[in-house]
Design brief:
CATH class of the largest domain in chain A: Mainly Beta
Number of strands of chain B: 4
Radius of gyration of chain B: 19 Å
CATH architecture of chain B: 2-Layer Sandwich
Oligomer: heterodimer
Distance between the termini of chain B: 30 Å
Helix content of chain A: under 10%
CATH architecture of the largest domain in chain A: 6 Propeller
Structural class of chain A: mainly beta
Strand order of the largest sheet of chain B: 1-4-2-3
Largest sheet of chain B: 4 strands, mixed
Order of helices and strands of chain B: HHEHEHEHE
Shape of chain A: globular
CATH class of chain B: Alpha Beta
Strand content of chain B: 5-15%
Number of strands of chain A: 30
Distance between the termini of chain A: 21 Å
Strand order of the largest sheet of chain A: 1-6-5-4-2-3
Largest sheet of chain A: 6 strands, mixed
Number of domains of chain A: 2
Chain lengths: ~425, ~170
Amino acid sequence: MKKNILINILVLLAISSAASAQIEINIDGGVESGMPIAIVPFKTPEGVELEHQVHKIVANNLYVTGKFEPIPSEKFLTLPSKLEEVRAKDWRLINAQVLVFGEIWSLGKDSYEVIYRMYDVARDKQIGQTKRVPKVRAQDMRAVAHLISDDVYKAVTNGGGAFQSKLAYVEREQLSPQNFRYKLMVSDWDGYNSVKVYRSKYPILSPSWAPDSRKIAFVNLTKKGPIVRVVDLNTGRARTIADFKGVNSAPSWSPDGSMIAYSSSRHGSPDVFIYNIETKEHQRITKHYGIDTEPSWGPRGETLLFTSNRSRKPQIFRYSLLDQTIERMTFEGDENANASYDYQGKNVVLVHDGGNIVLFNPLTSEMQWLTKAKFDESPSFSPNGDMVLYMTEQGFEPAMIVASTDGRVRTKVEFVRGDVREPAWSPLKK
Amino acid sequence: MNRKLGLVLTILFSVVLSACAPKSEPPAEPTVTKAPEAPKGPVYPYAGIDLTAEELTALGIDGDPRDEKVVYFEYNSTAIDRRSQVILQAHALYLGKRAGTRVSLEGHADERGTRDYNLALGERRANVVAEVLTAGGAASQNQTISYGEERPVDTAHTEAAWQKNRRVEIKY
């Protein structure tokens, strides 16, 4: 693979040495709308028109989280690019609480430097330091915009942003009426920069990211049945980790990266197994004549959620690796399946009654409906737990959606096209 | 243990089903012998299948049950219904005389439910069909494979489409 999709060579430098200050704006629960924020169009060098407009990408990113309400730039009274050009009252008038502005300098042929600042309008002072991103090619402006988005997100919410993370998904191409090609794709979080990392004429499903974002485990159907494979994103090489008799499916990478849980029916009925990457040993976890599948690790690797029909219909169960106990988690509704924790372990997202995406609180068992559609599937959390990625259908076409966990904002993943399915959001870039 | 129990239940189930099948009742002795070609009882057109053409048609089987290569299932179920039972019986009878025939049983699910769960469900259906064939006397070599919901015959989001997609295809 020639294109290295993992490492964005971007360096973020802080110019001033002033102590960075976290902005103190309370955006905790119960907000009707996000925090009003103004992203000023960045000043560009004379006569240069850049394909990717940084301010638009940043505004769109922040909007999708549900925590921000970017103000349309037509409302701006002034367009500052330097600190001395900021007049706080211009921004108070349009209710902006935070201002982001900057400029792009040309360093030579297809080489730019991006400088940006954040500003607290109420206090009339800069937030943190002035940031500089040197040596950027025009085509990297999207990556710069994602970096700035994460920086703004962190300054305002004090949490990690997810805009530099990646998506994996499966794209199906129809070659002839009965002939398909399946491609495992990796893209930016908004679907841009998509790259094929594996392809097969048989269905591919259930991608699961390694915690270092360098590998993806997935299921590939073959002539002999479904097998679990792992593809290395740097080398493009794939290897098989489970091709036992029967169905091998639903891989899930452990948080420390050392193990992959999966389901295998090699002893007759599907049970959960754990594959140890270093020793190459497979350990059987569940033994039940029902279907046990879709294992998914708890955030500290001490529990596994899985789907089982041992109580007749599929429900979510939790296995403890500490004391080997199994506990039923879900009781509401006919069916609950495909559960996964967010990275903090606060929330679980699952598919309820065959097609609703539901947030499940593992402590209180409370369910919160994110969607009430019939056929929504494949939910996964953003690495900061603020958003959920899932598949739905819009006008008979598959659509990949990102929803804020409060359900307030729902946007289609902009640049993903075609017959796509099985999205999975990567962990945070390390 | 439990798989064996499942197999026993399946066999019992098939026994119960065949017990339910209409048996040929001896025709009452005609008191007036006028019609010499009066029916002697139901006509079973296919050897080993104790069903009349009408009864087969009522089950949705037109012609030789062995020509039916697909059996269908209820949602999230692996139960073999009467129609499937008859079809599998016909295949089992045929395969019983042809030891070593390689049979491929492809299990499928409808789009409802998650993809991984449906892979498991498709396999279960294929396994149940394999067990019924074996119990019915097939000495074939069964290979089961699951395609889950990945290969629907009808992609519509309707009950009619789902019904067609919840299936096991018998190939030999």
